[in-house]
Hints:
- By secondary structure, the chain is α/β, with parallel strands linked by helices.
- The protein has a single domain, classed as Rossmann fold (3-Layer(aba) Sandwich), CATH 3.40.50.300.
- It is built from 12 helices and 12 strands.
- A hairpin with a 2-residue loop joins β4 (77-86) and β5.
- α4 (119-126) runs parallel beside α7.
- The chain is globular and about 45 Å long.
- The termini are close together.
- Adenosine-5'-triphosphate binds next to β2 and α2.
- Adenosine-5'-triphosphate is lined by residues 31-32, 35, 37, 55, 57-63, 75, 218.
Amino acid sequence: MTISSHASPSTDPAVSARESLLEFRNVRIVYDNAIEAIRDVSIAVPEGGIVALLGSNGAGKSTLLKAMSGILYTEEGEIENGSISFRGKNVHHLTPDGLVRRGIVQVPEGRRVFPALTIDENLQMGGYTKSAAEIRQQREKVFALFPRLYERRGQIAGYMSGGEQQMLAIGRALMTGPVLLALDEPSLGLAPLIIDRIYEVIAKLRDEMKLTVLLVEQNAQRALDICDYAYILETGRVVLDGTPRKLSANEDVQEFYLGVSGSGKKSMRDVKHYKRRKRWLS
Length: 282
Ligand code: ATP
C-alpha cells in the first residue's frame, strides 16, 4: 500500500470552504544553523475548528508550535523559508507578546505553571495583557469551565495533581482572551479519566467558546476523536492529512498510530521504522 506525500494546504472541501485563520506555508525551520527540523510544511487551520498535528517523537510538532508562538529563537531555531500568517497577515516576525496580543496563545508541553503561586495568582499572571475588568471577566469564564480550579483557587499550584495543573495551564492561557489556542500534548502523563475531562473541555472551547484549537498529540486516537482535520508529521514533513474519518480508515494510520492491525493490536515499536518511511514517502 502506498500513501502519497502531502502537497499543499488542505484540498479537503470541508476545510477549504472555510477561511484559514492560521496558515503555515512552505515552512522550513533549522536549529543551530544546521539541524533541519521542518521541511517545506504547509498547514491550514480554519477558524472555529480543531486541527490536530500528529506524529511520533521528534517529528517536528513542537517546533511548529514554537514557531507559531515566536519562541523559536530561545532555542537557536530559525524559520529559513516560507511564512506563517494569521488572518492573512505574516506574523512570523512578531514577538511572543505581540502574538498573544493578536490572540495566539500556546499551552506548552509539561504544564508549566508557576509552582510557588496560588491557582488564582497563576490566572492573574495569565491576564497580563488585559485590564482589571477583563481579567475579572476571563477569570469567571475559566472558573465556569474548571469548577475544580475555583474550589482550589487559594492553593499553591505546585501541590496540585497533574490533571489539575493541566487545567490551570489551559486556564492561564485562556486568561489572555485568545482567538487561537495551541495545546502541546495535553494528555501527556495523565490517567485516562483525567484525559477524558481535559478533552471534554477542549471540545467546549470549540463548541461553546468558539475558539480555534491547534492540538499537538502523540495520542492519535484521542486527537482523531475530537478534531475536524489532522496532519501527520514524520521527520519534519507532512506525510498525510485529512479528516479524522479518512485518517482513521487508513491502514497505515491504524497500524502505526492507532495500534490496530489485521492481526489485532500492534505496537509501533514492533514495526521497522524504515518500512513505514519507505511506504509513506514513496
Ligand atoms: P516530541 O513529541 O518528542 O516533542 P516533536 O514532534 O514535538 O517531538 P520536535 O521537538 O519539534 O519534535 O523536534 C523536531 C526535530 O528538531 C528533532 O529532530 C529534534 O531533535 C530537533 N530539535 C528540537 N528542538 C531542538 C533544539 N532546541 N535544538 C536542536 N534540535 C532540536
